[in-house]
Design a protein that fits this description.
The protein is mainly β. Helix content is 3%, strand content 61%. The protein has 4 helices and 42 strands. The protein has a 27-stranded mixed sheet that branches. A 5-stranded mixed sheet has the order 3-8-9-6-7. A two-stranded antiparallel sheet has the order 1-2. A hairpin with a 2-residue loop joins strand 32 and strand 33. The radius of gyration is 24 Å and the shape is globular. The two termini are 33 Å apart.
Length: 681
C-alpha cells in the first residue's frame, strides 16, 4: 500500500511519489507492486515531515508497527526498545529484523534496537515489510523487516537541522556530501540532549522520582569510490555514545559503539547485478537497577551491570539475474556475535556482595534463493528458500563472592547447533486496472539472544531468571490482501495469520515474599519469572487502509489494525492458555494528513489510537487506551531555509506504558514541543 505525500519539509514544495523500487523483501531492487507481502515505504522527505521527534516514533505511522511498552527511544531504557510488527514480538528482544543500510541494527547481545543511531536528515527511505523477508534475511525476521536506507554519497550538498523545545531538549544534525578527486566524502553527525520527564505517573510519584534525562551523539563518515568495471566501493565508519538517566538517582545506563563496513556493488550489462558487504561492530553497555520502597522516598541498588562488551562480525553477497519476465536472486550471509554481561548483585550492608559473568558466542550462516516470474500478463509468482546453520559455543555463567573470591556457581553449557529451512511463496494478481490481489506465506525462525539464554535480571521487585536451554522459535505466517486504486483514492485490506511455536516468554512462576526454586528470594509484592518456551501462540487479524488525495495540496490517510494475539498451548504454564499476549493491543488506528494551504506553509497532523493491552503474561495488569494527537507545522522562508514546529501528544494524553505488580503506573511522553530550522546548501 503506497502513499502520496507533499514534500512538506523539503526545500521544494511539490507532491512526490514514493520510490519506484523497494529492496528489503528480497535484498534486491524490485517494483513494490510486484511484492506479495505487505510493504510500506516512506521517502526521506516523508520521514522528516513526520511530527515525531525520534525515528521509531515516526515509524509508528506505519500500520502494524509498534514499540515495546509504548515508549519510544526518547524515554525508554535501551533494553526495552524492541519492535513488534502486527503484534508478533512484543518484547525487548525484537522478533523483527531492523537494518541500517543492510546491516543489522538489533543489539548483538540482547536484540533490542538503538534507534538513536538512525539519521533523519540523511535518510533516503524507510521500508517496513510486515510478515515477510525471512527467506532473504534469515534469523530474527519472524515478524518482518524494517530497513532504514541513508543517502548515498553524491553531488556536493549539505543539510543542517537544529531544534529546541520542551524539557530543555535540543538536537543538532548535519549531513554533508563533497566530491573529492575521483571519490565522494560524506559526513553525518548528531548531538542530542534532553532533561527528560518523570516516568512514574503523577499519583504514584515520590521524592525519589527524577526526570529521565538522556543524551547521545554520533559521527559517521563514508567514502564512495568508483572502481574498475563499473563497480562502486563504499567505506563507512561510525562512532556512537549515549548516556541515560532512567528515572531515579541510581538507575542509569551508557552505551558506546564503534562500527566499520565495506560495501561493493557492480553490474554486468542489464542482466546481472551484485553487491557485497562486510562489517565489524564493537560495543559496550552498562546499566544499573534498583528497587524503590513503597513510599518512593528511597531506593536500594539491585544490580550494577557495569560492563556488557559485545562484538559482531558479518558478511554477505547477493546476485541478481534478469531474463525476460523472470528474475532470480541468490546469495549467502554470515554473522558472528560474542558478548557477555559482567555485573554486581545482592546488595547488603551498603555494598554488592556478589559478581556474575555470563555470556557466550552465536554464529549464523545462510544460503538463500528467490525466483520471480510472470505466469501471465496479470499474474506473477515468487518462491524461494533459505537454509541456515547456527551454532552456539562457550556458554557460561559464573558467580562469585566478591569479598573472598569463592565460586558460588560455575556453569558451562554444552555447545549447541542446528539447521533451519525458511521457504516462502507468493502470488500477485492484477485482474483489472486499479486492482491488486496478493497472497503470501513463509516459515521463519529466531534463536534466543545471548541475553535471553544466559542473563537473569531484576527490575524493582520482579526477578526474571535466564534459561540456557531455550529452544528455537519457529513461525508459519500467511496473509491475503486486496488493494484498489481509483483516481485519488486507494483502499486496502489484508488478513494475516501467524502461528508461533516455542515462543520465548517471561513466565510468572512465583509470588513473593519467600524463597523459591530457580529464582531464589522474591520480596513482598514481587514476582519470580523465568524465560520459558510456550509451545504455541497465535497472532491473527486484519489491516485496513485508506489513502485519499482530493487535491494536490491535501492528502489524507487512515489505517486500522485488529490483532487477536493469544497463547494456544503452554505446558509450562497451563493457566496462560487463552490469555492475550502481553503488550499487544487488540485495536490500533492511525489517522494522518498533509495539507499545504499556501505554497510555503504545510501542516501534518496525526492522530493515533492505542487500545487497551496487558502488561503481564497473566493478564492481571491492564494498561488503558490512549488517543494521541501530534502536529507538525513547517514554513519555508526561501529555497534554502525552512522553519518547523513539531508537537507530540498535543492534548497531553495519559499514555500508560508500564504497571508493576503493586499497581504503580509508568507513563509515556507528555506534551512535547520542538521548534527548529533546516538549512540546505
Amino acid at each position: 500500500m503506497f502513499l502520496l505525500w507533499p514534500a512538506c519539509l523539503g526545500l521544494n514544495a511539490q507532491t512526490i511519489a514514493l520510490p519506484t523500487v523497494v529492496v528489503s523483501a528480497s535484498r534486491t531492487a524490485e517494483a513494490p507492486e510486484q511484492v506479495p507481502f505487505s510493504v510500506t515505504a516512506l521517502s526521506g522527505e516523508q520521514f522528516r515531515a513526520n511530527p515525531a521527534s525520534s525515528a521509531d516514533g515516526a515509524l509508528r505511522s506505519v500500520p502494524g508497527f509498534s514499540l515495546f511498552r509504548r515508549s519510544d527511544s526518547l524515554s525508554a531504557n535501551p533494553t526495552a526498545q524492541g519492535v513488534s510488527l502486527r503484534g508478533l514480538g512484543p518484547s525487548g528482544a525484537s522478533r523483527s529484523l531492523v537494518l541500517l543500510d543492510g546491516v543489522p541494527l538489533n543489539d548483538p547481545f540482547g536484540g533490542w534496537v538503538a534507534w538513536s543511531k538512525v539519521p533523519r536528515e540523511s535518510l533516503a527511505a524507510a521500508e517496513v515489510v510486515r510478515g515477510g523477508g525471512a527467506t532473504a534475511w534469515g534469523n530474527a525476521a519472524l515478524g518482518g523487516i524494517v530497513q532504514l536506507l541513508t543517502e548515498s554519497p553524491g553531488a556536493a550538498h549539505g543539510r543542517l537541522a537544529a531544534a529546541y523545545g520542551s524539557f530543555a531538549t535540543h538536537n543538532t544534525e548535519i549531513a554533508v556530501s563533497q566530491p573529492l578527486g575521483t571519490g565522494t566524502l560524506q559526513l553525518l553527525g548528531r548531538d542530542f540532549a534532553s532533561d527528560g520527564f518523570t516516568l512514574v505517573a503523577p499519583e504514584d510519584r515520590g521524592p525519589i522520582d527524577h526526570p529521565a534525562a538522556s543524551e547521545h551523539r554520533w559521527l559517521s563518515g563514508r567514502w564512495r569510490q568508483e572502481i574498475a568495471g563499473g563497480a562502486a566501493f563504499t567505506l563507512t565508519a561510525r562512532t556512537y555514545d549515549e548516556n541515560r538517566n532512567n528515572g531515579t538517582p541510581y538507575q542509569r545506563n551508557a552505551s558506546q559503539e564503534d562500527f566499520v563496513s565495506v560495501a561493493l556493488a557492480g553490474a554486468t550489462g542489464s542482466t546481472f547485478a551484485w553487491d557485497a558487504v562486510a562489517y565489524a561492530q564493537d560495543q559496550s553497555f552498562a546499566s544499573t537497577f534498583s528497587s524503590v520502597n513503597a513510599a518512593r522516598t528511597a531506593e536500594t541498588p539491585a544490580s550494577d551491570q557495569f560492563a556488557v562488551p559485545a562484538e559482531a562480525f558479518g558478511a554477505a553477497w547477493t546476485g541478481t539475474w534478469k531474463r525476460d519476465q523472470a528474475r532470480t536472486s541468490a546469495g549467502f550471509d554470515w554473522r558472528r556475535v560474542r558478548g557477555e554481561t559482567r555485573e554486581h548483585f545482592t546488595f547488603s550492608a551498603g555494598a554488592f556482595t556478589r559478581e556474575r559473568v555470563a555470556g557466550g558466542t552465536q554464529e549464523m550462516a545462510g544460503l538463500f534463493f528467490l525466483h520471480e516470474r510472470a505466469l501471465a500478463p496479470e499474474l506473477r509468482t515468487t518462491f524461494g528458500g533459505r537454509l541456515d546453520a547456527w551454532r552456539e559455543t562457550d556458554g557460561h555463567r559464573r558467580e562469585t563472592e566478591r569479598a573472598t573470591g569463592n565460586m558460588l556457581r560455575d556453569d558451562r553449557y554444552a555447545d549447541r547447533d542446528g539447521v533451519e529451512l525458511s521457504p516462502s511463496a507468493g502470488l500477485v494478481w492484477q485482474p483489472a486496472a486499479g486492482w491488486r490481489v496478493r497472497a503470501a506465506a513463509q516459515q521463519a525462525f529466531r534463536r534466543p539472544t545471548l541475553n535471553e539464554l544466559y542473563r537473569p535480571f531484576r527490575v524493582g521487585n520482579v526477578i526474571t531468571e535466564a534459561n540456557a536451554a531455550l529452544e528455537t522459535e519457529r513461525a508459519t505466517t500467511a496473509e491475503f490482501g486486496i488493494e484498489h486504486t481509483r483516481d485519488a483514492l486507494s483502499l486496502g485490506a489484508t488478513a494475516f495469520w501467524n502461528d508461533l511455536r516455542e515462543a520465548v516468554g517471561n513466565v510468572t512462576l512465583f509470588r513473593g515474599p519467600g524463597s523459591f526454586p530457580i529464582v531464589g528470594f522474591v520480596p513482598a509484592d514481587g514476582l519470580g519469572r523465568q524465560r520459558l518456551n510456550l509451545e504455541r501462540t497465535r497472532v491473527q487479524g486484519l489491516e485496513l487502509s485508506a489513502r485519499w488525495t482530493p487535491h494536490a495540496t491535501l492528502s489524507l490517510t487512515a489505517d486500522y489494525l485488529y490483532n487477536d494475539a493469544k497463547v494456544r498451548a503452554a505446558s509450562v504454564a497451563p493457566g496462560l492458555v487463552g490469555k492475550r499476549l502481553a503488550q499487544v493491543p487488540r485495536h490500533v488506528a492511525t489517522f494522518g494528513a498533509a495539507w499545504r494551504p499556501a505554497q510555503s506553509f504545510t501542516l501534518t497532523p496525526r492522530v493515533r489510537f492505542l487500545g487497551q493491552q496487558f502488561e503481564d503474561d497473566e493478564n492481571l495488569q491492564r494498561l488503558g487506551a490512549a488517543l494521541v494527537v501530534d502536529l507538525g507545522v513547517s514554513y519555508r522562508l526561501n529555497e534554502r531555509l525552512e522553519l518547523y514546529l513539531n508537537a507530540e501528544n498535543l492534548t497531553d494524553e495519559r499514555i500508560e506504558t508500564g504497571r508493576s505488580a503493586d499497581g504503580l503506573f509508568n507513563t509515556g511522553s507528555p506534551r512535547l514541543v520542538l521548534g527548529g530550522l533546516r538549512f540546505a546548501w
